[in-house]
Design goal:
Elongation Factor Tu (Ef-tu), domain 3, 398 residues, alpha+beta, conserved putative lor/sdh protein from methanococcus maripaludis s2 fold
């Protein structure tokens, strides 16, 4: 009996919960929604700008990578990060002992080649004298024709040998000049006026220039003028022009807006994830040195500006009332290029008004057309608190 009573109690409790829940759902559905169907905006008159947004990286306008044309061990470094240098300043020295020895060897080889050349010249003079002597004896019929031919041949050989020695001396001189140039290359000089923004070697480090010149320093010519390299989607690149005004921010100064101008739109396309982009170069001033190389810039390029136009919030053009789907479909079929609808409140409900849409800004769009005037009220999506609908009745079960 006790068990049966417990079962009855559980059943009664379950039935009671179901009845209360069903009653709550019925009352909740019958209660009218207190959330308004739309909010009101207003047509205003003022200036409007259309812009293209992108991100890019700040870099110096001119950057030179200073390398070494010879291999060796870094003996001295006379520049470091942030060091200001002038063109011609000695900034590094590669240990020169090996190059001095090679230069001395090349100089000795040159002296030997010059001596051999001079000796060959004396041989030419001697062969020339012998030829003249034999030719004089031939006139007296004291020597044969073969003796004259032999003397002439010896003279011609001496002339050719002299030319060979002259070439060898020139070759030795070129080798000496090369070794002298290599010795000069052990001293690294600043090629431009600027500031060192990168140092890639330390004293005692060996650099190898066998395949390509290793980079020792990176020097920025002038940090008071910098550039932003940004990639713009192909959908917007047609509206980008040189000298357009640019505003940008960096994470280091979030409350400060910097300005610049478009300097170049490069024709080389880049494909990223199937999207074609084009590189745009933006010149910016940096007189106070606040901008640093490598900073990420959030760029807004002003592509068009109009003054004293009628404009509405973009949300007003995106607003769609709670109309039957077929009726909305019919209305959409009437939309033409560069047109749209705003919704005007009336006593019988919302009425659509077709408008011409001009430039589109970040928050507002230009509109024009019959019946559009300053101060006109238009419908917009309803305002909500944190985007959540408040419960009007009962407790939340979830």
């Amino acid at each position: 009996m006790l068990k049966i009573r417990r079962v009855y109690v559980v059943v009664i409790l379950c039935v009671t919960v179901v009845v209360i829940g069903g009653t709550w759902l019925v009352l909740d559905q019958q209660q009218p929604d207190s959330q308004p169907a739309y909010s009101l905006g207003q047509v205003k008159r003022g200036d409007l700008a259309s812009s293209v947004s992108a991100t890019g990286t700040l870099n110096p306008v001119i950057t030179v990578q200073v390398g070494s044309q010879v291999s060796g061990t870094i003996q001295i470094l006379l520049a470091d990060f942030n060091t200001r240098v002038k063109k011609g300043d000695l900034i590094a020295q590669i240990e020169p002992s090996l190059f001095k020895a090679k230069l001395a060897e090349a100089q000795a080889n040159l002296q030997s080649a010059l001596a051999t050349r001079d000796k060959a010249k004396v041989g030419v003079l001697d062969a020339q004298r012998q030829l003249k002597r034999v030719q004089g004896l031939q006139k007296q019929n004291l020597v044969s024709e073969s003796d004259v031919d032999a003397a002439r041949f010896a003279y011609e050989v001496a002339v050719v040998e002299h030319k060979v020695k002259i070439a060898e001396a020139a070759q030795a001189k070129a080798a000496r000049d090369r070794e002298k140039l290599n010795l000069d290359y052990t001293s690294i000089f600043a090629p431009i006026d600027g500031v060192v923004i990168s140092r890639d070697v330390d004293v005692g480090q060996t650099v190898a220039a066998s395949l390509q010149a290793p980079t020792l320093f990176t020097i920025a010519q002038n940090l008071t003028k910098m550039q932003i390299e940004t990639d713009v989607d192909e959908a917007f690149i047609g509206s980008i022009r040189e000298q357009q005004t640019v505003e940008f921010t960096v994470f280091a100064y979030q409350n400060r807006t910097f300005k610049g101008n478009v300097a170049q739109v490069r024709l080389n396309p880049k494909v990223e994830a199937g999207v074609v982009k084009y590189n745009c170069i933006i010149y910016v001033g940096n007189n106070d040195g606040a901008l640093k190389p490598g900073m990420t810039a959030t760029v807004t390029i002003e592509v068009e500006r109009r003054e004293n136009v009628l404009k509405v919030p973009n949300a007003a053009l995106r607003f769609v009332p709670d109309w039957p789907p077929q009726q909305l479909k019919t209305l959409r079929s009437k939309i033409k290029p560069n047109t749209g609808f705003v919704w005007l409140p009336s006593e019988t409900g919302l009425k659509p008004l077709e408008v011409m849409v001009g430039i589109v800004g970040e928050k507002e769009s230009e509109i024009s057309g019959e019946g559009i005037n300053e101060g006109l009220q238009v419908a917009m999506p309803p305002k909500s608190e944190n985007g959540k609908r408040k419960r009007r009745f009962g407790l939340s079960l979830f």
